[in-house]
Write a structure and sequence with these properties.
Blueprint (H helix, E strand, L loop, with lengths): L1 E3 L2 E5 L9 E4 L13 E3 L9 E6 L2 E12 L10 E10 L22 E7 L9 E2 L4 E8 L4 E11 L5 E5 L15 E2 L5 E7 L8 E12 L20 H14 L3 E6 L3 E3 L2 H11 L4 H6 L7 H52 L1
Parallel strand pairs: 9-17
Antiparallel strand pairs: 1-4, 2-3, 2-6, 5-6, 6-7, 8-10, 10-14, 11-12, 11-15, 13-14, 15-16, 15-17
Length: about 350
Amino acid sequence: MFLFTSGKAFVKGHYLSPECQIGWNSTQSATGQSSDGGTIWIKHGRCGMHRLRTTNPHGVQFSTVIVVSFHPVFITKMDRAYNVKCEYLETQKSITPITVTQIAQSFPEPSCSYTIRKDELDGEVLKYARVGQQVVHRWECETSVYGMLVHSCFVEDGQGRRVMVIDEQGCHTDRLLLGDPTYVEALNVAYRESSVFKFADRIAVRFICQIRLCLRTNEGCAGITPPACPSPVQDALERNNLRRKKRAETNDMIADLVSQTVYVLDDTELNDYTQLEEPISEENHKQSSTVCISPIAVGILSSCLTITVLITSMLMIVFGIRRRSGVHSTATVVPTLSSHISKKYYY
């Protein structure tokens, strides 16, 4: 539930869905009743709401973007967007009738991430790409105690459409999209090379996966990770039985990991975006002492310099002519006055 005083509120990307937007004014609410404000209700899992399970702290997080618009048709500078997150935390309490002394070893819960890298495992985190570009999907948990299993991965377009690319067992569903993850010996990093793809008529893709954490001590991850992915000729029934067996035998921590959003653009658009975001190296500034000027700027500077020289020359000529005229006039008037005074004196 989100409360606003006036205007129109809707979930970003779902403006045309009646259940995802509401409009009202200061005296009339969306239900036709007099009200000082409006309320938009969003059901769990509707209107593209994202749901994430977290391990630190334990719980479930729901998030969405609410746009408040003050124009009935257009998005203007007065509008506001709010990234709303609701967290439901879990608490576990053990109640026993007698006091029991327990000696147990506890381990800190790891911090995990999911990134899509350019070209190689340690490449830069990708933001803009083109279809077919080589990338590496990387799942990582900062721990030496836990192992992880990557499973139940989906690719989303940000508009509510999603397709599974890694199943519940942790195996691929379509090799053309994404293959089986490869795990390092410590079981805390998994990766997979892939080529960039996107939904038709969409430019944004984002991946969301679940990870299952298991303790590596006493072979606690045996039979869990790495997964034993069946070959393409194996029977589908055998795959399903293996999934059910694994789910029944394990009671480990499960969390959701979300990759960054990758914008898949055409070559021309990709060059424009990368040039805008390419940082200028400070070292290049120090090493370079030459100022580059475009041909258009050179032409403008040359024209301005020529005009300045012409104006200066004309001013000097005019000043010289006026000065000469002033000297000549003074020389003519002085003798006339002198002769007049002389004549008046003699009479």
